[in-house]
Amino acid sequence: MPSSLIRRRRYAALTSVAAFALALTGCSTMGGGGGEGTAGVPTTADSISASDKRQGAEAHPQLIAQFGGAVTGPQAQYVERVGKTIAVQSGLSDARSDFTVTLLNSQINNAFAVPGGYVYVTRQLAALMDNEAELAAVLGHEVGHVAARHAAKRQKAATRNSIIGVLGSVLSGVLLGDSGLGQLGQRVFSQGSQLLTLQYSRGQELESDNLGILYLNRAGYDPRAMGTVLQSLAEQNALEARLRGTNNQVPEWASTHPDPASRVRDALARAGANAAGMTNRDQFLTNIDGVIYGDDPAQGVVDGRSFVHPNLKLAFQAPDGFYMVNGTRSVSINGQSGKAEFTTGPYSGDLNAYVRSAFASLTEQGQQQVVPQEIRRTTVNGIPAAFGTARVQSGNGTVDVTVFAYEFARDQAFHFVAISQAGNASTFNSMFGSMRRVSASEASSIRPRKLNVVTVRPGESVRSLASRMAYDNAQLERFLVLNSLDANSTLSPGQKVKIVTY
């Protein structure tokens, strides 16, 4: 949620992305659902068309903005080199200059590609990888979607879902009745394109896995990297679910696709038991060293139930039992008894009008009027505030929708939109009351976490290195998943491993 992007709600830009939705091809952590496809290697495109190039060029700056901006510098240049190397193996073009490969400044594990030669991977997903071959595998998988023309096969589904998926209101899916409360937390602004990627069929995902393996072989990489990076993704999703207390919920990318275990087995079998090729592990670790891990303070930082934005000088705390997901344009707050979103919109100095506008934006995306019974004024820790609640009949029963807004300056306001079962709107009262201003000294103390590649010294162990992870919980589990290790793994002096530090 960077300050440069949230001065006003950018519906116009998002609508432009909606117009491009039919051509977007990508993966929410390399997963999705819907559409048609078979598991065999498909017939693929043999060139990048002029129309695809135009569409990609138009969408490129909007997608970069939607996913936190582009990382620049040596790390991004390295990812670009690897991405272009694998992309030319697709046969779409033999000119590396025809492809644009971008490392995105996002803490979400994600990768996608746009027709026209545009390929993207987030820094968070890159940090999870163990070697260059895995980076090539992920990017090759995404290029495979483009080469296999999967976008054309999912146009009808994308048309039906473009308003919900791209405009991405945290409430629209519930009000339209196409999603339960359990899905609400997925609908944050930063994940509009991610939601659009949840359209590929099981067969199409397997096709892209197979194409990615083909590209790995052509480029000389170890083709087993497709299976190992899928394994890391599955383990990371499982860890995040356990840490959030949602271990009984299957991640959406996995629930609508071949289950992670079978997908890993299929990828390894496709690569072959005697597969070989370069992994370039040391080169990869050297180039990925120092990348920001988790939230970028420029977008605000989630730490447990607390959210602090040093640039905007604000902070709040989620209710007990809830967890947060930070996005480039909003923060989602998720729990069993309700869901919420924190975001902003254009502000003219009238807080009551701002609250009404927030409700009206929900009506525009739904099929019924969402109108508060009344709007009340108050102050929260010295901040002028206004709020209202509307009772709505949704596809999942009667719910209460609350908008709680705060005036931080004459031209700047922020608000929560919260949803709960009827009669339970007070679930979020503690969060509404926790909003506060952040002092300059507190803001300056907020530091990013970074990936740090270290060399194992004599006497060091998995547990001693894990104790250096910049977290106050699950240090060992985080270290093991980050390095594709298990609790019984032994480390050798001179071996390189990843840790997360400040």
Identify the overall geometry: globular
- What's the β-strand tally? 18
Q: What is the beta-strand fraction?
A: 15-25%
Number of domains: 3
Biggest β-sheet strands, sense, barrel: 7 strands, antiparallel
Number of H- or I-type helical stretches: 19
What is the helical fraction, as a range of percent? 25-40%
Report the end-to-end length measured between terminal Cα atoms: 20 Å
What is the CA-atom radius of gyration, in angstroms? 23 Å
Q: Low-confidence spans: pLDDT under 50, at least 5 residues? A: 4-25, 31-41, 156-198, 248-257
Which structural class should the secondary elements be placed in?
alpha+beta
Q: Could you tell me the mean pLDDT?
A: 81
Keywords: Hydrolase, Metal-binding, Metalloprotease, Protease, Signal, Zinc
Cofactor: Zn(2+)
GO molecular function: metal ion binding; metalloendopeptidase activity
Organism: Novosphingobium marinum
